[in-house]
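User: quick one, sequence for these tokens?
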């Protein structure tokens, strides 16, 4: 999806002077927005498709957040630094004008802990949800402003979140920016391991994740697109008649542990049943076990990690 840069303002935003420090290697302004004046890029992260969580209202407690927006799409996070004589108010007003001129609606904006809530800064900077915990490290203070904007048009839906803070002890103003361009996920990119690859992984590690097994949401119903992965599991079992394995179901940590233990067991049972329905597969060689979220391979703090944790695994007996 090709996106055009928003119209520039004749004032400070986007009409950049030469930066006093170089941008970090591999970074660039986002084509939707750009930068304020002589800001330089001090942190940068771009993902072709990922999950992003953005605050959508005041936050009193960083550990108990109701006002948040869960998004997926192309995600770009940028950290800018500029001289502290540019106040958070000045920077925020320029961004607000630029976004409005570009057809964005301002969904939420606030100033300091009185409007944003005492937990807002901690949630944005320290919790590793909006930004990775090591992203452009900074201690937060009360001199900040935040803004969330959205634009929906024929090019798609885009969200912009900005957190702008004056760090006067260090003579700088910091801008943290997230842009999420929501678009349909390109499916069909998973390369299902064939029987020989499954065998090689079992020989090397004693276990293997079976990519390409999909279940209906909150269900043990196996989706039709899982057929190829099931057939490769069956071929492995046909080619190695002495092989006995655990079929292990994993979930993310959403919901109670007891419920997820039961769901993961039902999903493991469903895989055994599906394999038993294929030719020449003796289900006595298969031991279904559900372990819920007890063995994660990624963080459950975001949807991208939770998706990795919802999986089926073969483990040698």
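Assistant:
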């Amino acid at each position: 999806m090709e996106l055009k840069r928003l119209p520039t303002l004749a004032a400070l935003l986007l009409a950049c002077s030469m930066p006093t420090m170089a941008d970090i290697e591999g970074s660039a302004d986002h084509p939707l927005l750009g930068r304020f004046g002589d800001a330089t890029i001090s942190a940068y992260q771009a993902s072709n498709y990922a999950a992003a969580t953005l605050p959508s209202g005041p936050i009193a407690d960083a550990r108990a957040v109701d006002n948040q927006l869960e998004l997926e799409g192309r995600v770009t996070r940028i950290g800018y630094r500029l001289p502290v004589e540019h106040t958070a108010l000045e920077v925020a007003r320029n961004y607000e004008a630029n976004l409005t001129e570009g057809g964005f609606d301002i969904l939420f904006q606030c100033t300091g802990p009185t409007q944003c809530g005492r937990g807002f800064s901690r949630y944005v900077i320290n919790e590793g949800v909006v930004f990775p915990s090591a992203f452009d490290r900074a201690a937060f203070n009360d001199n900040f402003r935040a803004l969330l904007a959205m634009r929906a048009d024929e090019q798609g839906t885009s969200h912009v979140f900005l957190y702008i803070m004056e760090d006067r002890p260090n003579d700088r103003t910091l801008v943290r920016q997230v842009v999420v361009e929501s678009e349909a996920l390109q499916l069909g990119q998973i390369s299902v391991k064939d029987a020989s690859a499954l065998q090689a992984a079992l020989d090397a590690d004693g276990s293997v994740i079976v990519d390409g097994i999909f279940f209906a949401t909150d269900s043990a119903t196996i989706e039709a697109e899982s057929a190829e992965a099931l057939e490769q599991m069956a071929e492995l079992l046909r080619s190695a008649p002495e092989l006995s394995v655990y079929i292990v179901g994993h979930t993310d940590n959403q919901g109670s542990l007891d419920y997820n233990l039961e769901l993961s067991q039902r999903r493991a049972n469903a895989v055994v049943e599906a394999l038993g329905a294929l030719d020449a597969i003796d289900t006595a060689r298969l031991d279904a076990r559900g372990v819920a979220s007890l063995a994660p391979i990624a963080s459950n703090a975001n949807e991208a990690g939770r998706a990795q944790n919802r999986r089926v695994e073969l483990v040698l007996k």
